[in-house]
UniProtKB/TrEMBL annotation, chain A:
GO terms for biological process: cholesterol metabolic process; regulation of cholesterol biosynthetic process; SREBP signaling pathway. Residues 281-439 form the SSD domain. GO terms for cellular component: endoplasmic reticulum membrane; ER to Golgi transport vesicle membrane; Golgi membrane; SREBP-SCAP complex. GO terms for molecular function: sterol binding. WD repeats lie at residues 1054-1094. The chain crosses the membrane at residues 20-45, 277-298, 310-336, 348-372, 393-411, 510-528, 696-715. This is Sterol regulatory element-binding protein cleavage-activating protein. Residues 459-479 have a biased composition (Pro residues). PANTHER family: STEROL REGULATORY ELEMENT-BINDING PROTEIN CLEAVAGE-ACTIVATING PROTEIN. It comes from Labrus bergylta (ballan wrasse). It is a multi-pass membrane protein. Escort protein required for cholesterol as well as lipid homeostasis. Regulates export of the SCAP-SREBP complex from the endoplasmic reticulum to the Golgi upon low cholesterol, thereby regulating the processing of sterol regulatory element-binding proteins (SREBPs) SREBF1/SREBP1 and SREBF2/SREBP2. At high sterol concentrations, formation of a ternary complex with INSIG (INSIG1 or INSIG2) leads to mask the ER export signal in SCAP, promoting retention of the complex in the endoplasmic reticulum.
Automatic annotation (TrEMBL), chain B:
Its main location: endoplasmic reticulum. GO terms for molecular function: lipid binding. This is Insulin-induced gene protein. It is a multi-pass membrane protein. Pfam families: INSIG. Keywords: Cholesterol metabolism, Endoplasmic reticulum, Lipid metabolism, Lipid-binding, Membrane, Steroid metabolism, Sterol metabolism, Transmembrane, Transmembrane helix. The chain crosses the membrane at residues 17-38, 58-77, 120-137, 144-163, 175-195. Belongs to the INSIG family.
Length: 1204, 214
């Protein structure tokens, strides 16, 4: 155990040092790693490129002997596959036949009917050829490749391909090698066409197989201008007998001499075929690759919390891939040639090596504390995971070693690769990936840290940004502050999934790229897979063009010009132009026949009447023009594979056949003449090829234009946004820039300025608002009603008791001296009079007549009672000389003085009765023009807000009212002793307050049975909120209760907090949030009374709770604002505020959060946790704050009614 | 209200079960097709004219049987987990599942393509690989016992099929069948169970969320 621990510590320390090293020198290490990767991959260059094309090797015919199986030392450039006998020898007899001279009486069918008919006699000749010499008699039967059944899937080819005998194919196979069938066949072309596959045909068709030359060179068609028919008789031999072949060649040449033939006969070509992967084999392979990509996808998806997710995922994939390459390279270097199919084992290797280590590393590093230095983070992350990484690697190596001892060569090889791959993967992870990760983390720190900082809870800000609260001196006048509001469209914290997908598609322009890549791949596949098609076609096109440009060759028949392309030299030197072997003079009048005039006008040089049979270099190896799958497919029909084997192609035997017109007519089928004459082409052949080229070009151009248009449309559809314009600002947002969303959209900037409402002489105790009106009440008991829009003071309801005495005292000092104070003085005297009179008489209405700066006029006189005691020590002139502008500073000073002198003040003032002191307003509600005020004496008063008169009052309760709820005509009052009173306001009668359902039931006695059983003293109702007919109370006895407003019945008692309830929020969705002194926040379902979630987020009391539709925002005594997801209860992020800044919360619109604290109002963007702006609004005011004696109204554009 | 929510939950559970079953079925069919193709000896290296038919080289009833079996197994595993009351916690992520599937395909690949000296060696290797698969991706006792049981049952069923002449192996070496068949079955059961558990995780999450909301 101790050993293990020691080992563990050592490994951890080593990893730590390594992490430090990697993070310290990222660039040299990456260079070093790249160099080592390249070095290890260097041996791979020697490996043959993967590909399935056949390889050729040419030897001489004369000294040919079957190569032995054993590798024979140094044999020059002899390839290593050239061992042992070939699968087969291919002997082709190339027949060129023509009817000559051409007769105008001949019909187009005659061009190929009689030449094709000759194949039967040739076949006869070949089959019956016997060579006899000293070693015995040999016939074709003994030498040829005997084939058995066709492959079972090819039943329909049974009629045309030979079975149970020599593999000998020729066009005669179409007619079962029987002359009679051929002669009785009315439509040869139809017979040939019958066997062609429908639709898209692969390169090796049956026609190619039987004719042995590509279809367009055969000349078997109605439109054959050259009137030469070409086909081959292919003999497949299993053993090579030079003498037999020589005699066959001599015999055929003797029978059908090719006068002008100069084909070389001394080379045989050995063609080696690679293993070809069929679709059937491809499907499992593709499946494994799909699984592999799914694995990589699901793995890299887990990379999170980094700057560039894609970059890291790429790095991870590069790590794995290059470790594989390194393993192959290293194995090759040490002489271990890979024999396994690399493509097949590759996915398994990746799966064995895996991406887990990379992910574990990333996770470990990003979970280290963010405030650490990058170096230390990397080092810590590495050392945290070192043990598990080492353990995993040891386990894997063990498993692989076990696999090595299975002694199965394939598995051993796999294991060897896997071991080397694992080791190199570990090396790359340690050096390459770690370094990339450190670079990434550093980038994130630089770019994101400042921006994300508010979201990181509990961290001291390292660099104060310009957005941080500034300690500006409080402006004497409300100065405009600027706040930016984001448009609601981009405020959602999380976009819906489909939108994100669309945005992703649009952002990366994925669709277009996929289409483009797909097109390119498609074109590539076309070009690659059909070499017999496009490539040869193009070559032929070019070769047919070339004589046109060559004045010397203008007189040549078009097909003669093919040669230059292949020889590259002077065309005339290689072209064997021979005089027509047929001495028959060319009858001019016969040449054109019925379609002569049309052509003659266009082409001065008409095709010769005597078809020229010429032999060019291209005939030497005519099989090259066939698809490279020609031979494999031929053999595959007989279940013989050519994969990894070779065939030898012997030099072709040329046969020239000239047929006389009589012969052609004799062999004619009676129906041949009934065929309609072929449609006369209006243009010449040359022009036609020209036009074909032009057509191809035009088509290509059109397709390109169409493609571009299509892409453009797709672009317009998928990317309606213009990226170019805002591209600069996107992603490059610097610190201090205006906050803008991800799309570079900067919201409009609007200005707000706080409006000061001054008038209260003491600290404001409670506030109430209904949007239009704002009622405030100060400690002194004075209630003021303000216009919430303009800030005008509409009504002043003075305190009935104690305060008039103070005013009285003030009257004597400053009353006469200040003209501006006149109204106040009068006011004071009014109060005095009213105070002397009885309360029931109603209070006189006080209306402001001067709208201009009423607050300022009112300011000084109201302040002065507080500093009454100070006037003895301070000269009054100082106070009087203070200009109104400086009133605020002075106020602060005065306030401090007042605070100092407060303790003696109760003794200094002789209050008329103790009841006056107790009757301060503890709770207030404003609804319509009625103000409900709950006093500490337990008295509930209803005031008219506009007239300032007391409408009615209720003094049944003895315990102070701590909370009030006023809804419609119901008033709910919570009292200090834990009772809840429900009142009904009768409006139509002379206003009076009716206690709901009679006093005995809901009076001062505890209204619900629950209360009686509990500790009544501690059961202080701290808050009551109402919504949708429910009244919710949270009390000090740790419970939240829900009452129905109509019948005041207690529906639920929710228990779950372990401390008194300090904050409650409820809204129309019937979700209730409560926060307690224990720092816990509970979400309840009001309808069922069940607890939805219960989270702890604060140290200390939860002071305030607000919900938006998607999240819950809480603030606590620890100055932390937490934002929770409303549905899951997961903390999204938290904001650490300055001390004392987050006392109260408000939400303006979905994403704008306002916090108010001591002397500042802060606006937060809920989506990003960004601090938008901090306003320093004088010393003592939040938006509408009950702190101090001043009110400040901050107009936030268009959301004023939300102030609360 | 609670009744309504419970009804809603029941509906959800049923649809989820159906969806899971369908997904598992399709995965089973797909794997059966592909792996069967692997088993088919390489007769042709080239494009025979009817390639497509070779994909469906096996009898028509094989893929549906495999699909049904995999659906049952994939549903059985999470069910047994919940019955035993121990939700499977080991490596519950899609990447691990993908790795498991890849290893399973690899085991099949090895059984089909790698030339072993004798059948005992092949069977032992495959058994070790299957056990390794279980250890790497499952590690639950219930999974192991279920895997062994189902593998044995499936082997028995195959033997019966072969005995009755429904199909046959080219070179049977152990009571009409190949001796590696139980290993393949075991690995398949583990893989399908892994997929099934991962799919069941969504339902589990949903129910948790739902109960939170309630």
């Amino acid at each position: 155990m101790t050993l293990r621990k020691q080992l563990r510590e050592k490994i951890s320390a080593a990893f730590y040092r390594h992490g430090l090293l990697c993070a310290s020198y990222p660039v040299p290490i990456i260079l070093f790693t790249s160099a080592s990767i390249l070095t290890c991959c260097y041996p791979l260059l020697r490996l043959p490129l993967p590909g399935t094309g056949p390889v050729e090797f040419t030897t001489g015919v004369r000294d040919y002997s079957v190569p032995s199986h054993e590798p024979q030392g140094d044999l020059g450039e002899r390839p290593d596959w050239y061992r042992g006998p070939p699968v087969a020898y291919i002997q082709q007899v190339l027949v060129k036949a023509a009817v000559s001279p051409w007769d105008s009486s001949l019909v187009p069918v005659d061009v190929f009917r009689s030449p094709l008919g000759r194949v039967f006699s040739l076949l006869e000749e070949i089959r019956n050829h016997v060579h006899s010499d000293s070693s015995g008699i040999r016939s074709l039967e003994s030498l040829c490749l005997q084939v058995t059944d066709l492959f079972p899937g090819l039943r329909r080819m049974q009629s045309v391909l030979p079975e149970h005998g020599c593999l000998l194919v020729s066009p005669g196979n179409y007619w079962q090698n029987q002359r009679e069938l051929f002669d009785s066949d009315a439509d040869l072309l139809k017979t040939i066409q019958k066997h062609e596959p429908k639709g898209l045909h692969t390169s090796a068709t049956l026609r190619d197989l039987l004719f042995g030359v590509p279809g367009k060179y055969t000349g078997v068609s109605h439109y054959n201008r050259k009137r030469v028919v070409t086909y081959t008789i292919t003999v497949v031999l299993s053993s090579y007998d030079a003498r037999f072949l020589g005699s066959l060649r001599a015999r055929l040449k003797q029978l059908h001499p090719s006068a002008n033939c100069s084909l070389r006969e001394d080379h045989m070509v050995h063609v080696h075929f690679k293993e070809e992967i069929g679709i059937a084999e491809l499907i499992p392979l593709v499946t494994t690759y799909i699984i592999l990509f799914a694995y990589i996808y699901f793995s890299t998806r887990k990379i999170d919390m980094v700057k560039s997710k894609w970059g890291l995922a790429l790095a991870a994939v590069v790590t794995v891939l290059s470790s594989l390459l390194m393993s192959v390279g290293l194995c090759t270097l040490f002489g271990l040639t890979p024999t396994l199919n690399g493509g097949e084992i590759f996915p398994y290797l990746v799966v064995v090596i895996g991406l887990e280590n990379v992910l574990v590393l990333t996770k470990s590093v990003v979970s280290t504390p963010v405030d650490l230095e990058v170096k230390l983070r990397i080092a810590q992350g590495l050392s945290n995971e070192s043990w598990s990484i080492m353990k995993n690697m040891a386990t894997e190596l063990c498993i692989i070693l076990i696999g090595y001892f299975t002694l199965v060569p394939a598995i051993q090889e796999f294991c060897l690769f896997a071991v080397v791959g694992l080791v190199s993967d570990f090396f790359l992870q340690m050096f390459f990936f770690t370094t990339v990760l450190s670079i990434d983390i550093r980038r994130m720190e630089l770019a994101d840290l400042n921006r994300r900082l508010p979201a990181e809870a509990g961290l001291p800000p390292p660099k104060p940004g310009p957005l941080r609260p500034r300690e500006v001196p409080p402006p004497p006048r409300p100065s405009p502050h600027t706040i930016t509001l984001q448009t609601p469209a981009f405020r959602n914290l999380r976009l819906p999934k489909r939108l994100r997908v669309v945005y992703f598609l649009a952002r990366t322009r994925l669709a277009q790229r996929i289409i483009m890549v797909g097109t390119v791949i498609w074109i590539g596949i076309l070009v690659y897979t059909d070499p017999a098609g496009i490539r040869t076609y193009l070559a032929a096109q070019v070769s047919e063009q070339s004589p046109l440009g060559d004045p010397g060759g203008a007189g040549l028949p078009p097909h003669l010009g093919v040669a230059p392309v292949f020889r590259g030299g002077d065309p005339t030197s290689t072209l064997s132009i021979h005089p027509a072997p047929d001495p028959t003079p060319l009858p001019e009048n016969q040449s054109q026949g019925h379609h002569g005039p049309a052509r003659a006008g266009l082409l001065p040089q008409a095709p010769p009447a005597v078809p020229q049979i010429t032999w060019g270099a291209e005939d030497e190896e005519g099989w090259r023009r066939l698809s490279f799958r020609h031979w494999p497919s031929l053999f595959s029909y007989y279940n013989i594979t050519l994969a990894k084997r070779y065939i030898s192609i012997l030099p072709v035997i040329p046969v020239t056949v000239h047929l006389s017109p009589q012969e052609a007519i004799e062999t004619r089928h009676p129906q041949d003449t009934r065929h309609p004459p072929p449609p006369i082409p209006k243009v010449s052949a040359d022009l036609q090829t020209d036009l074909t080229l032009y057509k191809v070009a035009a088509l290509g151009l059109a397709a390109g234009v169409l493609l571009v248009l299509l892409l453009f449309c797709l672009y317009r559809v998928l990317c309606p946004r213009n990226y170019g314009q805002n591209g600069v600002s996107h992603g490059r947002r610097r610190r201090g820039d205006l906050p803008c969303d991800d799309y570079g959209y900067s919201p409009p900037v609007s200005e707000i300025s706080p409006l000061l409402l001054r008038g209260h002489s003491m600290d404001i105790e409670c506030l109430a608002s209904d949007g239009m009106l704002l009622a405030s009440c100060c400690l002194a008991g004075q209630i003021r009603v303000w216009d919430a829009q303009t800030g005008d003071c509409l009504t002043v309801i003075p305190k009935p008791g104690g305060c008039w005495e103070q005013r009285d005292g003030w009257d004597g000092v400053g009353g006469a001296t200040e003209p501006e104070c006149l109204c106040s003085e009068a006011h004071g005297s009014y109060v005095g009079i009213d105070g002397l009179s009885e309360e029931e008489e109603g209070y006189p209405l006080r209306r402001r007549t001067a709208p201009i700066r009423p607050t300022l006029f009112n300011d000084q006189p109201d302040l002065t009672p507080l500093i009454d005691t100070n006037f003895t020590s301070q000269p009054p002139s100082h106070l009087l000389s203070t200009p109104p502008r400086a009133g605020f500073d002075f106020g602060g000073l005065v306030e401090r003085a007042y605070m100092e002198h407060e303790p003696p003040s109760p003794s200094a003032y002789t209050s008329p009765s103790s009841a006056d002191w107790e009757s301060s307003v503890w709770a207030m509600e404003l609804r319509g023009n009625l103000i409900a005020a709950g006093r500490s004496s337990g008295k509930l008063e209803l005031w008219d807000a506009v007239e300032g008169s007391l409408r009615c009052s209720n003094e049944d309760g003895v315990s102070g009212i701590t909370a009030l709820a006023f809804l419609n005509n119901r008033i709910v009052a919570a009292r200090l002793n834990g009772s809840l009173d429900f009142f009904t306001v009768e409006i139509n009668k002379p206003l009076c307050l009716l206690q709901y359902r009679g006093a005995p039931l809901r009076g001062s006695v505890p209204p619900s049975p629950c209360y009686s059983s509990e500790d009544v003293i501690s059961c202080q109702l701290t808050r009551s909120v109402h919504a949708a007919g429910r009244v919710v109370t949270g009390s000090q006895d740790h419970t939240v209760r829900i009452y129905r407003l109509e019948d005041s019945c207690c529906l639920f008692t929710l228990q779950g907090h372990s401390g008194g309830i300090t904050a409650i929020y409820i809204d129309q969705t019937m979700v209730l949030a409560s926060g307690g002194q224990d720092g816990a926040i509970c979400l309840w379902d009001v309808l069922t009374g069940s607890r939805v979630s219960h989270v702890y987020g604060h140290r200390g009391d939860v002071t305030s709770l607000v919900c938006t539709t998607s999240c819950v925002i809480s603030s606590g005594l620890d100055d932390l604002i937490c934002i929770w997801d409303r549905s899951t209860g997961i903390k999204l992020y938290s904001i650490q505020q300055e001390a004392g800044c987050g006392a109260s919360l408000g939400v303006i619109s979905e994403s704008l959060l306002v916090t108010g604290g001591q002397g500042c109002v802060s606006f937060w963007d809920l989506n990003f946790g960004d601090l938008l702006q901090t306003l320093l609004v004088l010393d003592n005011a939040a938006i509408v704050c009950d702190f101090g004696s001043e009110l400040s109204l901050v107009y936030v554009p268009s959301v004023l009614e939300k102030l609360d | 209200k609670t009744e309504a929510s419970s009804t809603c939950r029941r509906v959800f559970v049923t649809t989820n079960l159906l969806i899971r079953g369908a997904m598992l079925f399709s995965v089973g069919v797909f794997l059966a097709l592909v792996l069967n193709l692997l088993q088919v000896q390489r007769n042709v290296t080239l494009f025979p004219p009817d390639v497509i038919s070779s994909i469906f080289s096996s009898a028509w009833w094989v893929p549906p049987c495999c699909g049904t079996a995999s659906a049952m197994i994939g549903l059985l595993y999470p069910c047994i987990d919940s019955c035993l009351g121990e939700p499977h916690k080991f490596k519950r992520e899609w990447s691990s599942v993908m790795r498991c599937v890849a290893v399973f395909v690899g085991i099949n690949h090895a059984s089909a393509k790698v030339d072993f000296a004798n059948n005992v060696q092949l069977s032992l290797t495959l058994a070790a690989l299957s056990i390794g698969l279980w250890w790497t991706f499952d590690r639950s006792r219930s999974g192991f016992s279920l895997g062994v049981t189902i593998a044995l049952l499936a082997t028995l069923a195959t033997q019966l099929l072969v005995y009755n002449g429904v199909f046959q192996y080219t070179s049977p070496d152990f009571l009409y069948i190949r001796s590696w068949l139980p290993c393949i079955f075991f690995a398949g059961v583990i893989t399908m169970g892994n997929i099934g558990r991962q799919l069941a995780l969504y339902e589990y999450k949903f129910i948790q969320e739902k109960s939170h909301q309630d």
